[in-house]
Specification:
The protein has helices spanning 3-15, 44-48, 53-69, and strands at residues 23-28, 33-38, 73-77. By secondary structure, the chain is of the alpha+beta class.
């Protein structure tokens, strides 16, 4: 697991009510890395935040972390 995904997982676990159910999977392709965040259904709203501000902040955090590693990083919330 890359350090960007580890950092994102740590932050997501702090945000949700069920931290043991939170996972982050890194999917790499030619354009960069997509970090797929999966949380309990009841925690999705906490990760998205009001008007999407929390998920936007998580994306900005991952993007900055990815720049330090020299790659493009995107964050997506996985829904079942």
């Amino acid at each position: 697991m890359s350090s960007a995904s580890e950092d994102l997982l740590a932050v997501v676990r702090l945000l949700v009510d069920h931290p043991k159910e939170a996972t982050v999977e890194a999917v790499e392709d030619a354009e960069g890395v997509e970090l797929q965040v999966e949380v309990a259904a009841t925690d999705r709203g906490q990760v998205i935040g009001r008007r999407g501000r929390t998920i936007d902040a998580l994306r900005a955090l991952a993007r900055v972390r990815g720049e330090r590693e020299g790659r493009d990083v995107a964050v997506e919330l996985v829904e079942d």
